[in-house]
Amino acid sequence: MPISYDHRRRRFLEALGGLAAIIPAAVPQRHHADVEFPFRQDSDFWYLTGCDEPGAVALLLPHCPETPFVLFVPAKDPLAEVWDGFRWGTEGAVRQFGADLAHPLDELESLLPGYLQGAEGICFRVGRHPHLEPLVLRLWADQLDRAPRRGGGADRLVAPCPLLHAMRLVKDPDELERLRLAAAISAAAHERVRAMVRPGLNEADVRAELDHHFLASGTRGFAYPSIVAGGDNACILHYTANNAPLRDGDLLLIDAGCSLDDHYNGDITRTFPVNGRFSGEQRALYDLVLAAQLAALAMVRPGGTAEEVHATAVRVLVEGLLELGLLAGSVDGVIEQGAYRHLYMHRTGHWLGLDVHDVGAYRLGEHPVALQPGMVLTVEPGLYVSDRLPVPDGQPAIEDRWKGIGIRIEDDVAVTDDGAEVLTAAALKQPEAMERSR
Ligand code: GLY
Ligand code: MN
Ligand code: MN
Questions:
Q1: pLDDT digits over 180-226, tens only?
Q2: Which of 28, 53, 129, 189 is 20 to 30 A from 363, alpha carbon to alpha carbon?
Q3: Binding site membership of 380 for ligand 1 (Cβ less than 6 Å)
Q4: What is the value of pTM for the model shown?
Q5: Measured from the CB, is residue 355 less than 6 Å from ligand 1?
């Protein structure tokens, strides 16, 4: 089933009440000189429109029942299209994206005040769209100036995030289907590169193979710059240099996922020995991270919380690290003091969707958000043993034999009616599979 952007707009219009929403597309970003980064659409704009036009602006106007969805788009321009490619233009915006009305972008400033008439407020995200913000704030100021004489107007400025991101947090069956596909392509990439890895290759060879697999599978490419980290590089959480030789005896951590043409993402991490055989220390820590991950996965169910998932992973890791002599004290004491954080310093997961670190609250006030069917999250515990962080007072010094081991195991998981579906199960993680013929 194709995604129904119209259905989403209707839900959002209902949630807006009397507010007029201004939802901007992303604008091209400069890479250097006159070269731009590949264009990436704003996820909120995409969620409501499915439109990839840079610089466009969507208006969602519940107070205009005849024309609730208005798009401002770059006008057709043969010369600009010769240089930069096809534009839908205003007619295309109506035909292709279901806009009730469409205008050229350069009419936004003159037409926007008219569209605000009859609205009770403006729904716009301040701080994210610097090219548009001065115009919106000026219009809001005008509304405030006139309100006393008119007895009202669009005099409130409200952020769209709470409404829109609550919608984005819970995926519908069509979105889950897309996330399953993103997960399947990402998992296949992991299986493929594990089979090719051997000592003497370079991290860059693996990265190139991931890119190739993602693009040859018809996706937009990577969802985020792949992390291909041999040995101690795996202890750098956001390592993206990806240019070191893969050494006999090291582990290789690969954190990589693709982004589909409609921006649904995969996000998988696997860790395995470059030479096909774990050392004793590597295997002990691998088994521990896997045990933590499986225990955390078992906590993903309706009514559970991301907090519980994290707490479960931390507890299993701490118990195992105490047994291995990498921590000292009592389980509860170590957890309470955070005395494990030189070995495990990140959270155990995040929402996943159109953004890799997807939108949606984790807490509402004091209360962690309860998991419900349709939510999708990652479960990604790890251990990172290096000299970078000081060992906390009272904790044992780390013997050299453990150093340079960085392990993370990450799956993408959808909450179902009665538990969870691991979307990325096709990427193997049992230690025996990680050791297969190389
Ligand atoms: N790849 C980013 C993350 O795992 O959160
Ligand atoms: Mn992740
Ligand atoms: Mn990841």
A1: 999 999 999 999 999 999 999 999 999 999 999 999 999 999 999 99
A2: 129
A3: yes
A4: 0.96
A5: no
